[in-house]
Specification:
heterodimer; A: alpha+beta; 5-stranded antiparallel beta sheet; 3-stranded antiparallel beta sheet; 11 helices; 18 strands; elongated; B: alpha+beta; 3 helices
């Protein structure tokens, strides 16, 4: 590069407004460069006039401003999520009057996926309800119970939960329930009993507690009965009939975790189990209702020769159309059989259980006649 | 197949399910206590009044099905009808004539000859 025609560069060199750097070593003083540089030395060289001109200095207003960033924190997200940023001329003041600290007793939380978000700040507050656009999709729905009155009553009745009771995100421990709110529907009767004064717990609570609790129980019962995709009313009315029927969509309402059920075996006999969990049924995928076979986890007791303990199996309830008699399902609550019979099955199963434990808890020599034996296939063991 | 006075030995302590495979494997005694306990919680109201009442009465909360995880067959007085009702329907039986294992339903005509 030659600077002989560049007046500014020549001027810079003349006034030592230059930067010389020995490659892989560092800067060489612009005052002494002509005595330091030797023949064959690799240097980088630049004149200051060739630099990109600096931005003109910003003008500053003579003031101090206060920017406040709001991060919404929750037990699930302790670091918080950005929600707003506002700038003020005056410093933040500490509010001592708790004018707006009241929380709603219940909050429905919906997450919407939208291809194009249109903010409508002007009348967002004035709108009575949010609007779901034609291209918007509901991704998640949950119900948060802020009311300690209601949550404490639920905590006193939920002992076998559909949704992780010890989890850190959802369930009765956190007071947040995922749609379709299985634990809430399964314990609606308990809330109604509390409201009607049929719960021993009500007598332990002061009148002021019960007054607020009744109010919040009414709110949640109204909310749950208004869910048009959950056929609770139909299930409740069918329960009162002698020959009860169910639709596929409402099967899960019959199968409350922790309750006794009969499982219909391939040989036609019925065995007693306890419901653990139910998955499948009618689920929403990308805004469309998909029917999947129910998979019901149930448990009974088995003996390994020393002691008996719970053993789990899974029972499938395939998709069916229209209505079906509850008693004809592969798994159904015991009362649909026992309430209309003489309790003979229960008695037979109890007697059989005594024999099972007698035969399995010690080596037994037995004689049998008839069918009822499945041959096994021996497998190699190491 | 119809059996007539066939003789079998039931000895679950020898864990025959390890060396014998059945299509309906759910009769295999596998302990799922931990899996079940994950869904069970102690139901109790956590309000101030109830907490105080529990402390003053010295009452201890009991977990649902807490006594279903280790049932001792040698203490029949402690076993409830509900626990008996939930017992499995089949046992692993060694058929003496055929020298192989079978899954035997307790409901069939079984006669206990001796207990070792």
């Amino acid at each position: 590069m030659y600077y002989c025609n560049d007046h500014n560069a020549l001027n810079d060199i003349n006034w030592n407004n230059i930067t010389i750097r020995k490659v892989d070593h560092g800067l060489i003083s612009s005052e002494t460069w002509d005595s330091v540089i030797q023949h064959g030395m690799r240097v980088s060289f630049s004149v200051h006039s060739s630099r990109v001109p600096q931005q003109p200095p910003l003008d500053y207003r003579d003031q101090l401003r206060y920017t406040v960033t709001y991060l919404e924190v929750s037990p699930k997200d302790r670091d918080g999520c950005f929600v707003d940023e506002r700038t003020y001329d005056a410093p933040m003041e500490v509010e001592t009057i708790h004018g707006d600290t009241a929380m709603p007793a219940l909050e429905e939380l919906r997450t919407i996926q939208t291809p194009r978000y249109r903010a409508n700040e002007k009348d967002a507050d004035a709108q009575a309800r949010a609007k779901l656009g034609p291209l918007d999709q509901v991704k998640e729905i949950s119900l948060k119970i802020n009311s300690s009155y209601l949550l404490n009553i639920l905590k006193s009745v939920i002992e076998y939960a559909s949704e992780s009771p010890h989890g850190e995100e959802f369930g009765v421990g956190m007071g947040e329930f995922n749609y379709p709110y299985k634990d809430l529907y399964h314990h609606m009767d308990d809330l109604v009993r509390y409201r009607a004064g049929e719960s021993y717990l009500r007598a332990q609570h002061p009148a002021a507690f019960n007054e607020r609790a009744d109010c919040h129980i009414d709110l949640i019962l109204d909310y749950l009965s208004l869910q048009r995709d959950i056929p609770f009313e139909k299930y409740a009315s069918a329960r009162r009939e002698k020959v009860s029927v169910t639709t596929f969509a409402s099967c899960w309402l019959l199968l409350k975790p922790g309750t006794d059920v009969y499982v219909r075996e391939e040989d036609g006999l019925m065995n007693a189990y306890i419901v653990h969990a139910v998955s499948g049924g009618v689920t929403q995928v990308d805004g469309k209702a998909i029917n999947r076979d129910y998979e019901v986890s149930v448990w009974n007791l088995a003996c390994d020769g020393t002691h008996a303990f719970p053993e789990v199996r899974h029972v499938r309830v395939p998709v069916f159309d229209n209505e079906r008699e509850v008693k004809s399902l592969p798994v159904f609550p015991v009362e649909y059989n026992d309430n209309f019979g003489d309790g003979k099955l229960k008695q037979e199963l109890t007697e059989r259980g005594k024999r099972y434990l007698k035969y399995t808890s010690q080596p037994s020599f037995l004689q049998y006649s008839g069918r009822g034996l499945t041959k096994g296939v021996e497998v190699a063991t190491s | 197949m119809q059996y007539k006075r066939a003789r079998v030995v039931v000895a679950h302590e020898k864990t025959p399910w390890i060396s014998c495979d059945f299509s309906d494997a759910h009769h295999r005694p596998m302990n799922f206590s931990t899996y079940i306990k994950a869904s069970v919680r102690v139901a109790s109201c956590e309000c101030h009044q109830c907490e105080e009442l529990r402390t003053s009465q010295g009452s201890h909360d009991k977990e649902r099905f807490g006594d279903y995880h280790t049932i001792q067959p040698k203490s029949p007085d402690l076993i409830s009808d509900h626990q008996y009702m939930l017992m499995a329907s089949h046992v692993y039986a060694f058929m003496l004539k055929e020298r192989t294992y079978g899954m035997l339903a307790i409901f069939v005509a079984l006669k206990l000859l001796t207990v070792h």
